[in-house]
Amino acid sequence: MTMLEVRNLHKKFGKKEVLKGINLDVHQGEVVVLLGPSGSGKTTFLRCLNFLERADQGQMTLDNQLIEVGKAKEKEILAHQRKTAMVFQNYELFQNKTAIENIAMPVMMAQKKSKEEAYQLATHLLEQVGLSERGNFYPSQLSGGQQQRIGIARALALNPKVILFDEPTSALDPELVGQVLTLLREIAETGATMVLVTHEMKFAYEVADKVVFMENGYVVEQGSPQEVFEHTKEERTKAFLSRFT
Ligand code: ADP
């Protein structure tokens, strides 16, 4: 089943066209990795997927709900946003809230769940991300890797149809990257539908179902990791990948 279908997505900042007609299909339970040089539009694309940026033109169908992005009304946008969750490069946790509050509060606000229910869920997710002992810590008292695991728990708490990850390990010290990648693998194994921007090529190769190479606002090439990494078709993809070997 197709969970997310994107058609002809365009986005300009001023006169600069950053997305030039992006098409993407993400099936339920699939892990899709977006690769590409800096400035190719990966983050903008991810942000357009949940209306942190509004694309100018195009269609998205998430969980069978079609949305014309250019014309969408506030109510449609909110309904779409509730089915997505984002994990940010810099975690974006509330600094004046504890770890457990960071997870539980969006659940209470977005899903109108009771405090008791939200905290129960948050406690369970803290355990899943290996931070049961850190629920009452503030973000500043946690390592980058721990903060990102809280960011991931917060996204999972919203029970989204698709989770978007924007370079989730790129702000981390190298020794902390592994623990977050391990958690991402575990989440992938639960059958979550995930779209990730990452430069972790080994992770992409081992975990992705589909690899999408973007450049200059276009999808240049996409396929299974084997197709894209081992049987690369496009010269531009080859040139990009050669930097990592
Ligand atoms: P990537 O994630 O592939 O590095 P981005 O989506 O961050 O690419 O950026 C694509 C292009 O859009 C870049 O040229 C960037 O400068 C530009 N851009 C991104 N966000 C904005 C913004 N809010 N305003 C103006 N230009 C932007």
From TrEMBL:
Localization, UniProt: Cell membrane
Domain ABC transporter: 4-241
Molecular function GO terms recorded: ABC-type amino acid transporter activity; ATP binding; ATP hydrolysis activity
CDD domains: ABC_HisP_GlnQ (cd03262)
Membrane topology: Peripheral membrane protein
PANTHER family on file: AMINO ACID IMPORT ATP-BINDING PROTEIN, L-CYSTINE IMPORT ATP-BINDING PROTEIN TCYN
Protein name stated in the entry: ABC transporter, ATP-binding protein
Native organism: Enterococcus italicus (strain DSM 15952 / CCUG 50447 / LMG 22039 / TP 1.5)
